[in-house]
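Example 4.3 (complexes with small molecules)
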Amino acid sequence: MRNLVLILGDQLDRRSAALDGFDPTCDAVWMAEVAEEATYVWSHKARIAIFLSAMRRHRDWLRQQGYTVHYHALDDPQNQGSFASELTRAIKQHQPRKLVVVEPGEWRVLQSLKQTAQQLGVPLEIRPDRHFLITIDEFKRHAAGRKQLRLEFFYREMRQRTGILMEGKQPVGGAWNFDAENRKTFGTQGPGLVPQPIRFAPDAITQEVIRLVETRFPDHPGSLRAFDWAVTPEQAEQALDDFIENRLPLFGPYQDAMWTGEPYLYHSRLSSAINLKLLDPRVVIQKAVDAYRQNHAPLQSVEGFVRQLLGWREYIRGVYWLYMPDYLERNALNAHADLPDFYWTGETDMNCLRETVRQTLQHGFAHHIQRLMVTGLYALLLGVHPKQVHAWYLAIYVDAVEWVELPNVYGMSQFADGGLMASKPYIASGKYLQRMSNYCASCRYKPDQATGNDACPFTTLYWDFLMRHESAFANHPRLGQQIRNLRRLSEADKQAIRRQAAALRQEKPSV
Ligand code: FAD
Ligand code: DLZ
Ligand code: SF4
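Answer. The structure with flavin-adenine dinucleotide bound is encoded below.
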């Protein structure tokens, strides 16, 4: 054998660079379902199922195209359960002269592949992942010499570089973003009838995978009863068209809103398909821009959506590869509390957390503002150790791959990187959740109270957070107002808040 081409679970791109120059007479593809990837973090059943189901579809497609695929199924009795063991077995059996792989989505996996190749004395060729619009090296050049990395600068550069939503050198519509128009709430009357996203009933392959996951990982969190994710490029494209047609027009204004029983609202629900590389982000962006040009969706929605993909997604990946592996060791706020158990069960009387976690367990999904301002915010205010927060986020979402999950958790949500990625910690009290959702209306707590039996734990912990980090943020340009408000509290109030926060840390409130 000349080349053994390794295709990992999140590399299901039919135009992958791994397949460039493939010669069916002397090359073969290797894919491996391995238990370690499901257990390394305690993965939600739906996360395991989506990867395995999509991998099996890709295997079948490759074989239909004439590629030889050596596929290590999870239930193969010889499968020893890790990339290292399965790759070693394959190398010994096929004796390839070279291994070829596209840049993996995790630093840990890259090290494991390098180590195995080195131990067995087989060269490993790592090819750039052209799924992304900017390479890792190009991002490093963008970062070089800058005192601070910020999304806004990067995003503008990407707009200029690609010409997306540009008129010559100027942004279409005369502004780079329309954030100020994108913070609408649903008011007390609620969102009304939100067009529900297209769903894909599990077919025979997915059903088989579901049975396998239930048998092999019965104690893992989450349910598979509602599994309806896209697992092929064709389904992913249908999901994209459905989003563009039905939800993109209102994506912008309601980007930050939340509502009970509505896990998707006007979000695209495309992250898993894009991260598995079933969808090319260029196609997604182009279809959104076309919708604007055809007057189907307003600029504020289209720009808001494009920014997530052309801006945040590429930026996040750049940050990950720029700072790994040291990034994982950061804990700038010196947070050491344990993640409350209810993150795995949803059993808490805090309604916002109960809704978000239960929905997450049901679908393996929560939209961005739920991840940032409900589960993320509570962990940040409580002071949970960032590694525990990271292990939860990596395990629990169907779209979680470390390159995208980790900077979102450490940089955007927990401020564990001390501001490398985001300009400030995203902190708020329960009053923010009251404004942006209807969660508080049926909660036993009161968002405007910081102490006493009915005090909202978010509000108590918000003030406590400011007190604990007052000196660090006293001169922060974007937290000044919050610190000034803190300084208006009486000493007695501060004491009471500290006591209540300490009790919350011990109690881990549950029903
Ligand atoms: P939409 O709201 O419709 O956005 C469109 C697309 O933009 C998404 O599909 C996604 O590809 C991209 N996008 C949006 N925001 C981000 C972002 N902050 N970073 C990178 N890409 C973005 N996203 C993941 O894909 N995997 C994760 O593991 C993940 N973990 C997160 C953890 C935390 C703490 C936070 C705050 C965010 C996380 N995100 C993650 C980002 C974001 O929440 C999800 O991409 C989004 O909720 C997916 O839903 P959607 O497809 O409906 O996105
Ligand atoms: C997340 C995941 C799971 C659950 N299972 C597999 C698997 O069996 N085989 C595989 O190749 N990848 C899996 N993945 C994705 C990996 O954890 C990891 O994110 C990617 O390999 C990084 O490129
Ligand atoms: Fe969440 Fe507090 Fe509102 Fe209850 S009152 S839903 S705990 S923010």
